[in-house]
Every structure is written in structure tokens, then in C-alpha cells.
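Chain A, query sequence.
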Amino acid sequence: MHTFHIPVLGLAFSIDTPLKVARFGISSVVSIVDDILIEHMRKHHSLLNGESYSPISVRDHDYRARRVTAYLNMVQRIVEKQISTLKASAFEKGSEIVKYFEMLADQSPMKALYNRMIQTGDMLKQSAMQDELRSKIVAGDINVNIMTKVDKTNVGRNNEPLPAEFSDAVASLRGFVRSDLNSSVVLSAGLNPRLFSYIGQYAEFLPDARGNLRKKVILKVSDYRSAYIQGKVLAKKGIWCSEFRIESGLNCGGHAFATDGYLLGPILEEFKSKRQVLADELSQLYAAALQEKGVPIPDSPMQIRITVQGGIGTAKEDAFLRDHYGVDGTGWGSPFLLVPEVTNVDDETRNLLANAQRVDFYLSNASPLGVPFNNLRNTSSEKQVRQRAEDGKPGSRCTKKFLVSNTEFTKEPICTASSRYQALKIAELKSLDLPPAELDEKIEKVIEKTCLCEDLAAPGFIGDNSNTGRKQRAVAVCPGPNLAYFSKIVSLEEMVGYIYGRVQMLTTAQRPNMFIQELRLYIDYLRNEVQKHIDSLTEKEQKYLKTFSENLQEGITYYKSLIPKLVEETERYREVMRDQLLQFQEELLSVVIPGIEMREAIPVENSNARWGPAEGMGSS
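Chain A, predicted structure.
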């Protein structure tokens, strides 16, 4: 029904988003990593909707998968009831059925039919058209996300390792497969051989004779190569990738997986030019795998959707991505953190997000996974981390253990955000007789780690009456830097209207084009990487940084050629964008990689730019 979807947002932020938007035809994604949060939310929404609730204990066999299944089935039941109620409502101002059709894009055939129904003066025709509209109402997809890197092997009551099928990611997948949902699992963070092999065991992912799939796979990828490799691995197992969800490496929320300097525009161009080649190659591998499994090959070719997300900020950018690159849809994530109807965010954090400036959004080392993590300054989580360090008790109690991975001091993996690890690491650093400044710097990197298991799940517990009397919960939030240009808490209708160009919402005319913003982030990232390794640059690191820089320069050249195609923008907009690219090109060449001379790699044009980098992209 809509050209956009709402991607997964942290752990708790979008955990029940389908209950808030699916009845309006909007698809969204639920994280199924945290079974503790999932069980809590199942209890909460069961009681809220008059459903019976029977707890699933950690003592129960396969409890993690069972919790996921029970929660997803509950969400499905509630959404089905919501749809029935919506369909039965009258076409009158303020009703949910009117809200359903009013929110559709103006170009939607359904919106056109709705408008004709409103305008007709023939009561019989109007009634018939209303019946037709009701019959076409469908819910948005209730998709789920599994971050493939979060897949620790669990132990039983005797502390003995459990079989591989009880690992975190695999158990979550099994919970999804056993649910009643006819939807997709979004796999993010790269290839997990154990998980991918497990998917191949389930008939629910196999097609019927017409190519229909009960359960689908969506791969979130950062570039074409990643899509090609992972798609082939799945196809060889008889699993079709129904959608490649391209996400900007740095201009996104949550964990940031930087490419080797490949920018979003050139990446989309490669997908555009190689889309059919990708489909053909995967189809051949897929057909061979199905034949080996004894599964009939569908009569019609399997379809692949290409969508993109990360940093989209205006209706014109959204339309350009769909029109120029031919993508089938877009993802809008972080802006929905400012929509109370859609996401779980406590009032303190939501107000912090609404009032934050660009400088308040930064790429941190807060994640225990060791992957750069998009962060916001002055959250209650960040304050708690600082306070614990000042009190001489750095780190957190590690109760959920989803991100345990470090064996530096212990035989069993522990989390680098835990008080246990941080005490051991700080003690080691203090024993090395380091200069005071170096010691402080290294300790700062240790205590920066945040308990994401607790703090990203906290909004799901805050405000719940059953939580009264429990400890105060600190909240971590992981918005994309694009949110700096959204400074207003809005309704669902307003946000959807903004996405479709019907509502003006940005509070500044100085927002850069999404490609310019990402380029800014990548140059900053390169500069930080050079600084990080400047005293001990290996030949391998030198080669990586050189390739990174060259790819950025090629990206700048590509964007120069793209500017004339931004026909919906003003001449002033295109002029400023060109000036910014020239400035970025000069700035990139000034980044000194020891042993590498980059200035001769590409000629620099003269620039009369009047704006600083990443500023001045207002269309007025």
C-alpha cells in the first residue's frame, strides 16, 4: 500500500510498531533478539487487549523460540482484529478507514479510487465504491529482524554447551518459522554460515508451484558484492532472497558498517545496471538447488525487490531514489522516533532527540560488538556510564548476555560493557606503567562501552505499571545523523504526509542532500582511521586506506555527473551541491595517508563555494 517501510529501530523502539501501523497498510520490522523484552511485551499487550497470558519460563524447553512464536502470533491476532474493525468503520471524518486512505500516496491507484468515491454525488455508486475500497484493504507486513552477529552458543543447566540449534539467532529464527506470520525475516550484519544453513532446513521458505513463499528472506546489505555473495549462498541452499535492502554504511541508525569508501549513489547505480544479471545468476543456482531437493521449479521467474534506506530526508530525495534508480521502495527509520504513535521512546529521550543539533549525533565506540555505533549525546544511558565510572564502579551487570564475546581474561566469553571485564581491563592497564595521558585515554575507551542489551530495551519497560518500584532504567538511543534536521514531535499522519511531500516539517533550510551528508561522514571516518593508525601503519592498512580514499574520489566524480539529473531541485540547490563536491574533493586530497600521495589521483577544479561542507542545501 505504501512506497516506504519502517526499518527495525533498536530493540524496544519498534518492538510493537506493527500494532500501531500495520492496520494502515504500513510495513515495519520487529527485532526478535531479546526474548526477555519480547515476553514482557507479550504480557503487556495480552492484558491490554483482553487476551489470556500464560508465561513461558526460562526453565521451559526451547523457551527462546517459543517466546518469539507466542509474541508474533499475538501481534498477528491483534492486527487481524484491528483490520476487521477498520473495515467495518464508516467513511466519515476522523474514522480509521478514512485515515487509512488519506495517508496513501497521492499517486496510489487506491487513493485515486478513494478520491473518486468522495467526489461522486451518486449514493449507489458511492456505496459500491466504498465496498470495493473495503475489499482492497490489507495490513502492512509484520517483518522480523535478526542481527546475524548476535548468535552466542548457549549452555544448559549443567553449564554444558547446548546443540547449535539453541544458539540465539537460530532459536529466534525457529520462533519466526513456527509463527503464523506470512512475512519476511530481515537478516542484517553479514553472513552467518550456521544460521544460513539452518534456514535451508525449513520447507516454509520453499516455493509452491506458482512461486509463492510463506516465509521470505530479506538481506540488508551495504553494497552489491555483499548482496551477490550472500544471495548465492542462500540460493545454493534452495532459499530465495526476495529483497535486497540496501542501507547506507554510515548515514544510518544503529550499528554502522562502513564500506571500503563506496558511497550510496554509486552502489545504487551498480544495482541498477546489474539487477537482471544478479537475478539470472541467482535463479540458475536456485533452480539447481530446488531440483536437488526434489521441489518443483516455479513456472514464473522469482522476483527480487530492491529497496534503500539510510539518511533519506525529503520527499524529493525519496522520489528520486525510486525514479532514477528504479528501487521498489524506501526505508524511513530514525524520523519515526519523533512519532509517539509509532515508537516506544520515553519522554525525556524523545525531547532530547527533538532538540538535538547536528553536533549531538556522533559515531561512537559504545557497542560491545566492536562495531561503530551511532549515538546521541547526553542520554540517560551515557550519563549512567559516566556516573558509574566516577563512582569507581565502571561497567554494568551482565544479566542478558546477548553480546558476550571477549575471552581476553576468562575462559568463557564475557561482555566488554560488563563491570567484570572493565575491572580486569583497567587493572591490567594500570599495571603497565603507562604515561598518565595515555593511561587515561585507554581507560576512557574501556568505560565507553554501553550495556545495549539493557539500555536499548529500556523503553519497553518504562511507563509500564508492572514495572513500578523497580530500578530506574537508563535509555540508549541510536538514531541516524539525519535526524538532526528533524526538530518536531509529530503525529503519524504528519510524518507520512511529509514523506509524500504533502507536509513541510524540516525546521532548517540548511539540510544537505543525503548523498552529500553521507560523503561528509565518510571523509570524517577516513580521517579518523588515518589518525588511529598513523603511528603504526601496516602495509595492509596503508593499502586499505588508499583504496578507501580512491573510492571516495570516484564517488565525488559520479555525483558531479548526477547533479544535472536532479531536475526536481532548484538551480540554486544544484549549484550549492556542486560547490560542496569541489570542497570535499579538495578536503579529501588533504587527508595525508603516510607513504601515499593522493593529490595526483584526480584533478581539482576551482571552487567559488560560499558554503561550508555539508551546509547550504536548502532548496529555497
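Residues 200-332 form one domain. Confidence is low (pLDDT under 50) at residues 465-470, 600-604, 606-620.
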